[in-house]
Amino acid sequence: MAGLANLLEMGKQGMLYAQASIQTTGKNIANVNTVGYSRQRLDINPLLPEIFSGFSLGSAINGDTLRRIREDFNDRQFWGQNSLMAQYTSEETLLRQLEGILPASNDAGLRAMLDEFWVAWNNLANDPEGTTVRTGVRDTAEILTQTFNRIHREYRNLQSNIGSDITSVIVDINNLTKQIAELNRLNPGNNPDLEDQRDRLIDRLSTLANITVRKDGGSVSINMGGLLLVAGRTSYNLNVDETLDSQGVGQIQIKLAGSDQQVNITSGEMGAMLKVFNEDIPNALNQIDLLALTIIEQVNAVHQTGFNLDGITGLNFFDDRAAGAASMRVDSAIVTDPFFIASSDTPGEPGNSEIAMAISSLSDEALIGDQTIGENFRSLMSTVGNRIRGANFLRTSQEKVVDHLALQRQSVSGVSIEEEMTRLVKLEQAFAAASRLVATADELVRTLLQLI
């Protein structure tokens, strides 16, 4: 009877675990389109057989281990490459905004206004006594200064907007690390669904910054830019530390809250924003300021040596108090009366146009290193354009890498309807076999009872 009881027990356990496996398989099928879901399996292992009088009476099974199918190596590769792809994507977007402030083909852009400014002086050289051409020089110069003002203002606005975005992303990072630490506390090693939720949070975190993830049993630790942000049940917040120079241009560092420890974020959306904020925009502003100050200095230097129609000399054309593009202005005397513009190098010669010609010819002189004003501006445009092309190339290449890794991860963890349906049929057959074993044991018991 002990053997028959053991037979009944094996049949019962077989039915229970086949049923549990069927439920797990059904759950997999139901989540076939759930992003970040890892297929699950119920492990079934034999127990040691019972020994009675030297004979094995059979064995039962143990199937209480629910396991999700996941490879940590694939995850670590994906997180690293995903961070780079987010960096290149965000970098390209931000650089295109930077380029949009200096449209090379726009008739109202800086390049066009520089050309018109030199042409206006050339027109004055051809007609030094003309009222219209003098007014044209003043008006064109005012539009040029307004263009420099606008560019500087828009660069500052872009930097300010990126700074706000950086602050928002830091809030997101702090929330994500807090949630990950909370999931560590809940010990998701015993719950595949919680593990999937935690990995989805890490996926999101990898798009924001460069991270290193280390798993220890049911817990994970996360290092970002050389500092530990998640350690078991504890998470550490980040802060934004921004400083402004005398021109209002900002620099941002990301630091561990409550300390001066700087987080070295080099990739992800945050890495791209920090690079554009701290490097690209200040460099562009410095170059625009250099252009503006060079024009002011060189034009004033020539203009001061000339004479206007009334024989007055020593006048500035631009306000020499300007500190850069933001404060570039035409001298107030010339704004009031364009006849103060000097065009002659000799007093009492109204038809003399040597000064106007000299200022017009500044467009062809190497005033910034070995570059003319126009060449220096084109160099700025070329630098931004090359950065955009580089970011575009890297983004396109990185998308292929990330797509390949995502497919690899999906091939391991993803749900295949065909595979799950095949497994479902097998499990149903196993359940039917176990139920027949129970029925057979029951019939044997009934037969033995009838023989007694």
Polypeptide structure, described:
- The chain is an alpha+beta fold and 452 residues long.
- It folds into 2 domains: 2-69 and 417-451; 75-403, no CATH class.
- The chain is built from 10 helices and 10 strands.
- The strands form 4 sheets. It has a 4-stranded antiparallel beta sheet with strand order 5-6-7-8. It has a two-stranded antiparallel sheet with strand order 1-4.
- Strand 9 (238-244) and strand 10 form a beta hairpin.
- The radius of gyration is 38 Å and the shape is rod-shaped.
Blueprint of the fold:
Elements: H1 2-30, E1 40-46, E2 51-52, E3 55-56, E4 61-68, H2 72-100, H3 110-126, H4 131-185, H5 192-208, E5 211-216, E6 219-224, E7 227-231, E8 234-235, E9 238-244, E10 250-256, H6 268-303, H7 332-336, H8 354-361, H9 373-413, H10 417-451
Helix pairs in contact: 1-10, 2-5, 2-6, 2-9, 3-4, 3-8, 4-5, 4-6, 6-8, 6-9
Characteristic key phrases:
452 residues, 2 domains, two-stranded antiparallel sheet, 10 helices, 10 strands
**Number of spatially distinct domains:** 2
Strand content: 5-15%
Principal-axes shape call: rod-shaped
Mean pLDDT: 86
Q: Which radius of gyration do the C-alpha atoms yield?
A: 38 Å
Q: How helix-rich are the residues, as a percent range?
A: 55-70%
Individual helix count: 10
Structural classification? alpha+beta
**Strand order, sheet with most strands:** 5-6-7-8
User: Would you report the number of β strands?
Assistant: 10
Described by strand count, sense and barrel closure, the largest sheet is: 4 strands, antiparallel
Helix and strand sequence: HEEEEHHHHEEEEEEHHHHH
Distance between the termini: 13 Å
